[in-house]
Write a structure and sequence with these properties.
Number of strands: 15
Shape: globular
Structural class: alpha/beta
Helix content: 25-40%
Strand content: 15-25%
Order of helices and strands: HEHEEHEHEHEHEHEHEHEEHEEHEHE
C-alpha cells in the first residue's frame, strides 16, 4: 500500500478504537490452549492481559474463568477468540446467546485482532509499537550451497566478511529504541554458528534487551556444533534454537542432528528440529524478472511476508529484500525504513504503518524478482545442493 497520509493512515480506525478503549481496558482471551498462551505473551508485554475464558478450566484466581463465571462477574471488555477456525463460531454463539452478554463486549477472532486491530490499538491507545518477527543476519556465509536458498547465500564466498560486532550492536540498539517489544527476535545467516562473535552478540542483546523479546532464537542448519561459550550464552539468555532439517536431501546430516540435539539437551537449551518432510518454495530469485507493466503494488499486497530484518539503522520489511538483494546484486536499496528518524509517538505510528504494509512506493523493488504469494504453489525439495560451485 502506498502512503498517502504517512503517520495518519489509521486515524479513523484509531479514533474508533480509542473510543472503545475509553469504555474498557480489559482484554480477555477465550481459549487457554497453545494459541491463547502465545497471545497472552503479547498482551502482557503491553500490560493489558486481563485473563482467560475457557470451558475446560474453572479458577477463582482471576486468571481463568468459565463462561458462566465470566458473564456473572464481568460487564464489559474485549474478547479475543483463540481457537481453531471450526470452533470459533461456536464460541461466539455461546457468548452472544447468553442474556448477560451486552453490546459492551467487543468480540474478535485472534487472527483479525492481532493482524489488523491490536497493532493500531497499541499505537493509538497505549503508545506501544511491537513487531512479530525480526532478524539480524550476522553472516551471509554458509556451510551449504542450496540452489533455492531464500537468502541467496549460495552466491556468497566463504572468504566474505561477516557483519561486525559493532554493527550487530548498532542494529539491536536502533531496533529496540524504536520498538517496545518483539514476539520473536532471531540471529540468522547464512549459518550463524560460523560467526565468531555469536556468543558476544547473544550476550549484548540479552543484557540490554531481553525483557523486550518474548522468544530470542537462533536458526541453524545444524552442520556446526556450537562451542561451550555459545551454549552458556544461550542458556543464560534463554535462547531457543531452530534447527532446519534437511535429511531427506542430505541424509548424512541425520547423525549430526542427533549430536546437536543431545548437546542442547545436556545444556538445558530449548530447541526445535523441523519436520524432515517439510518443503521449500521457489521464490524465483534466480530466474524471474517481472515486466514494467506488472502491478507491483498488487504483488506486494498479496504477499504479506512476516519476516523483517534490521541492519544498522535500516529496517527491512522483507528479509529477502536485503539478503537476496545484496547477495545476488539486485538493485533494492530503497526497500527499508530509516529507524533513526523514529523519535516520538507520531513517528511510531509511521513505524506501525510500515509494518502493516505501507511504504513510499507501495511495493518493494524486490517484488520485481519474487513470485511473492504465488511461491506457495511452487513447492520444491529442501536444500538441493548446487553442483557448479
Amino acid at each position: 500500500m502506498k502512503w498517502k497520509k504517512r503517520g495518519h493512515e489509521y486515524d479513523e480506525l484509531g479514533d474508533d478504537l480509542l473510543k472503545k478503549w475509553e469504555g474498557t481496558h480489559d482484554i480477555y482471551l477465550f481459549g487457554a490452549g497453545e494459541k491463547g498462551k502465545f497471545y497472552r505473551n503479547i498482551l502482557e508485554k503491553s500490560g493489558v492481559f486481563s485473563g482467560f475464558i475457557d470451558n475446560r478450566v474453572v479458577s477463582d484466581d482471576g486468571v481463568i474463568y468459565d463462561v458462566d463465571q465470566f458473564l456473572t462477574t464481568k460487564k464489559n471488555g474485549w474478547i479475543v477468540l483463540c481457537a481453531e477456525a471450526a470452533n470459533m463460531s461456536e464460541m461466539r454463539l455461546q457468548l452472544e446467546s447468553d442474556y448477560r452478554f451486552s453490546n459492551k463486549f467487543y468480540i474478535y477472532e485472534f487472527d483479525v485482532f492481532f493482524q489488523e486491530i491490536y497493532p493500531v490499538l497499541a499505537a493509538y491507545a497505549i503508545n506501544r509499537v511491537y513487531d512479530n518477527l525480526c532478524q539480524i543476519s550476522v553472516t551471509e556465509r554458509c556451510t551449504l550451497k542450496c540452489e533455492k536458498c531464500a537468502h541467496g547465500c549460495w552466491n556468497v564466498p566463504m572468504a566474505n566478511e561477516d557483519l561486525s560486532l559493532d554493527v550487530v550492536k548498532e542494529s539491536a540498539d536502533n531496533y529496540f529504541n524504536a520498538f517496545d517489544f518483539v514476539v520473536e527476535f532471531v540471529l540468522i545467516g547464512g549459518e550463524p554458528f560460523l560467526y565468531k562473535h555469536i556468543a558476544e552478540s547473544i550476550a549484548y542483546i540479552g543484557d540490554n534487551y531481553r525483557n523486550q523479546i518474548i522468544t530470542f532464537a537462533i536458526t541453524t542448519n545444524g552442520t556446526i556444533l556450537p562451542t561451550q561459550e555459545v551454549l552458556d550464552a544461550c542458556k543464560k539468555y534463554d535462547v531457543h534454537i531452530h534447527i532446519s532439517n534437511y535429511v531427506k536431501t542430505l541424509p548424512a546430516l541425520r547423525e549430526r542432528y542427533k549430536m546437536l540435539c543431545r548437546i542442547l539437551e545436556k545444556n538445558d537449551i530449548s530447541y526445535e528440529l523441523s519436520n524432515e518432510d517439510d518443503k521449500w518454495v521457489d521464490y524465483g530469485f534466480d530466474s524471474l524478472v517481472r515486466s514494467e507493466e506488472e502491478n507491483l503494488e498488487s504483488v506486494f499486497d498479496k504477499c504479506k511476508t512476516p519476516c523483517r530484518e534490521v541492519r544498522g539503522n535500516k529496517y527491512y520489511f522483507c528479509v529477502q529484500a536485503r539478503a537476496v538483494g545484496e547477495n545476488m546484486a539486485f538493485d533494492v536499496e530503497d526497500d527499508y525504513l530509516d529507524l533513526s528518524v523514529i523519535k516520538n509517538k507520531e513517528d511510531k505510528k509511521t513505524l506501525m504503518e510500515f509494518g502493516m504494509g505501507y511504504s513510499k512506493k507501495g511495493y518493494l523493488d524486490m517484488c520485481k524478482y519474487c513470485y511473492g504469494a504465488e511461491a506457495a504453489e511452487r513447492v520444491i525439495p529442501r536444500a538441493i545442493q548446487k553442483r557448479d560451485m
